[in-house]
Amino acid sequence: MSVVVLGSVNHDVVCEVERLPGPGETILAAATRTNLGGKGSNQAVAAAKAGASVEFVARIGEDPDPALRKSLCEYSVGLEAVVEVPGTRTGTAYITVAAGENQIVVDPGANFRWESDAELDRSVAAEQIAAAEVVVAQLEVPIRVVRWAARHARRFILNAAPATDLPADLLRRCDPLIVNESELAAVTGHPITTPQEACVQARNLCLNGVPAVVATLGAAGAVWARRDGSAAVAAGYQPAPRIDSADSTGAGDAFVGALATVLADGADLPSGVAFATAAAALAVQSPGTHAAYPSRDQIIATLPAVPPARDPH
């Protein structure tokens, strides 16, 4: 189960509040904590805890906090392709959490400081990506670098977050493209309010050349669609188990990391989505990100609580 995750790494500054502030409003935090984050590092840790052999490709600032590398090493994430960028600093995310919901602002820092494609072609990252069963990327790094990784990957997964316009050549390599409701709406231009609407738009993306799509719907679960031949598209709806959410920060990354792990192990998309749904349900029941992500044994033990998949219509 070899997985390469290419993406962001941040220092997270998390403020816990009674409710999220409105525009122009100042409120007091009940507590503040700092931890390692970024969608890239989150997904790398989630995949490693779910059982994958993970290499992480990332850019961090000069003279970073030693705890950054130590934290990733504790989860057995490979760091040979994590490069320090002179003259810049590691990215920072400012996160406000209230009643299981969050607001996030990211200062990308070193996450947006990458070499040219020609230099990347000669890097250890290129060797790792070419050898991996699955390569995962997000959009907290330059899209140029994401497209470079997609061209070199045997199987490429894109978590299209944060939402942005995606070139057709990149979409055609996504197996699957993973989005939430707002990101699916941004990609398709259609609002998403129900699993049925999400399924219609996921199917349309497949009909227009995307190999597979997974749309996460928070507490409602997820839908998936995949091309079965040149014209046919199969689709399904995976409900989520009922749970009490303590902190949704990074839950989508838990889903992505777990899904990448089982797809690298040869699982089909429907069973992979069920596995990832169990992982995300476990992750939101504890505060934080990396420490909250479940192990493979925990995910397997939770699978019986995941409702059966059903027809999205």
Taking the alpha carbons of the first and last residues, their distance comes to 34 Å
Q: Could you spell the SSE succession in H and E letters?
A: EEEHEHEEEHHEHEHEHHEEEHHH
Poorly predicted tracts of residues: none
How many beta-strand elements?
13
Give the biggest beta sheet: 9 strands, mixed
Mean pLDDT: 92
Portion of residues in helices?
25-40%
Broad shape: globular
Number of helices: 11
Backbone CA Rg: 18 Å
Strand-pairing-aware structural class: alpha/beta
Portion in strands: 25-35%
How are the strands ordered across the major sheet? 5-4-1-8-9-10-11-12-13
Structure notes:
- α1 packs across α9, α9 (251-264) packs antiparallel against α10 and α10 (269-283) packs across α11.
- This protein has helices at 39-49, 66-74, 117-121, 124-131, 143-152, 168-171, 181-188, 195-207, 251-264, 269-283, 296-302; strands at residues 2-6, 10-16, 31-37, 53-61, 77-85, 91-98, 101-107, 134-137, 156-159, 174-180, 212-216, 222-228, 232-238.
- It contains 11 helices and 13 strands.
- With 313 residues, the chain is an alpha/beta fold.
- The chain is globular.
- The mean pLDDT is 92.
